[in-house]
Amino acid sequence: METPVLIQLQIGYTNPVLIVNGSNSVLVDTGPKGSLNRFRRYFSRYGLEPADIRLIILTHTHFDHTGNLAALQKLTGAKVVVNLREAGLLRNGSTPIPRGTNLFTKGISLFGRTFVPRFAAPEPFVADVEVDTEMDLSPWGLEARIIHTPGHTEGSQSVIAGKNLIAGDCFFNIYPHTVFPVFANQPHVLLETWEKLFASGIEQIYPGHGRRFPVKKALETYKRLKKE
């Protein structure tokens, strides 16, 4: 079984990942709403028909990762996978705004929770598959698995494909000196998640925001945070 080809996409300010594997290809996250034609172009660029996308995996249910979900599912016919801890949130369209991890984003979060509490919520959608702690993707011919990676949200999950981590918002790569998310409901839990991920042998990280980066950069952030 070959290691899958990963393509990081640019959908607005979010970075879904396309796992190219012929007629068993997988899409991780769907970006903010209104980008269906951009996805069509990406599929065509990499030699895929929409029906080649067999799974759509959600790393979590915030609107910027679920915005094109309904349209893409209709286009591709793919099964939709979500963590069971957030399946109800997706079904009800009720995901709360996450908490900030620095002074600025704490203020944004407080404002949002007070005045626009549904801002981060997805459009209601019923997923096909609910994952607890892990899901093997070998039935789709992939050397890959979904794992539970809480911290940003309780039901966050990521995909390990070979030595690569498709991380969702478990990591952000938008600042030069840190890859810690600017929003996380449980920062201490997220650091524990990082420890487990480092032990898994990953080498490259594909974040939900920002370009992919080597795990060394995350280790540097982790060591600095543990000293604080």
Provide a concise account of the structure shown.
The chain is α/β, with parallel strands linked by helices. The chain contains seven helices and twelve strands. Helix content is 31%, strand content 21%.
Descriptive notes:
It is a single chain. The model has no long low-confidence stretch (mean pLDDT 94). This protein has a 6-stranded mixed beta sheet. A 6-stranded mixed beta sheet has the order 7-8-9-10-11-12. The protein is built from 7 helices and 12 strands. It has helices at 36-45, 63-66, 69-76, 84-92, 103-115, 187-199, 215-227; strands at 5-8, 17-20, 25-28, 53-57, 79-83, 129-131, 134-136, 144-148, 157-161, 164-168, 204-207, 213-214. The chain has a single domain, classed as 4-Layer Sandwich (Metallo-beta-lactamase, Chain A).
The chain-level mean pLDDT equals: 94
Low-confidence regions: none
- Main sheet specs: 6 strands, mixed
The outline comes out as globular
Overall structural class, as computed from helix and strand content, comes to: alpha/beta
Radius of gyration: 16 Å
Strand order of the largest sheet: 1-2-3-4-5-6
Number of helices: 7
Question: In percent, how much strand structure appears in the residues?
Answer: 15-25%
Question: What labels describe this entry?
Answer:
228 residues, alpha/beta, Metallo-beta-lactamase, Chain A, globular
